[in-house]
Amino acid sequence: MSHSIVWSLVLALHILCIVVWIGGAVYATAILRPSLSLLDNTQRNSVHLQTLGRFFKMLTHVIPTALITGWLLILHEGGFAHVPWTTNAMQGLGVIMALLFVRILTGPYQKARRAIRPQPATFDSIRSQILIIVAMGVLAVLVAAMGHPFV
To answer: I need a surface site. Which of 38, 43, 66, 68 has the fewest CB within 10 A?
Structure first.
């Protein structure tokens, strides 16, 4: 396999991870949550917890893969000092987004999982924090587009 093909595959894997991460977050906040209002509380909590559980389990693989492939691409380009500010900004946003995910996973999500009857405020907390991740993800995509050399 050619050297450039390997790096193209690393970039493709990186982009796919970002798509799953941000796309899943948009789905969880903009599509799933409003649709759950059609169910009674018990069903709503069950479906919400099961869906978030599956999504978060996937993210425990997707997020490290996104970060590692991003760092590999940075190293391929000569290291952190040799990449444009846009790349470093994307990296910073990605790390903050990952830390927010860990905060959700270990905080309100665990609280909801352990509760006999999770409170709507707990799901609201999860949703608002996921929305912050979405906003940061959109900002990272905009920064990525700014760093693309259109010549």
So the answer is: 38
Residue 67: how many other CB atoms lie within 10 Å: 17
pLDDT bucket at 3, cuts 50 / 70 / 90: confident
CA neighbor of 6 nearest in space, from 52, 96, 69, 79: 69
Residue 87: CB atoms within 10 Å: 18
Cα–Cα distance, 144 to 58 (Å, whole number): 24
Helix (H) or strand (E) holding 83: none
Report the Cα 27 to chain-centroid distance in Å. 11
Q: CA-to-CA distance for 139 and 141, rounded, in angstroms?
A: 5
Note the pLDDT tens digit of each residue in 68-107: 999 999 999 899 899 999 999 999 999 999 999 999 999 9
Rounded CA-CA distance 42/48 in Å is 10
Separate counts of helices (H) and strands (E) for the chain: 6, 0
Report whether 66 contacts 16 (CB < 8 A): no
Average pLDDT of the residues in 128-137: 97
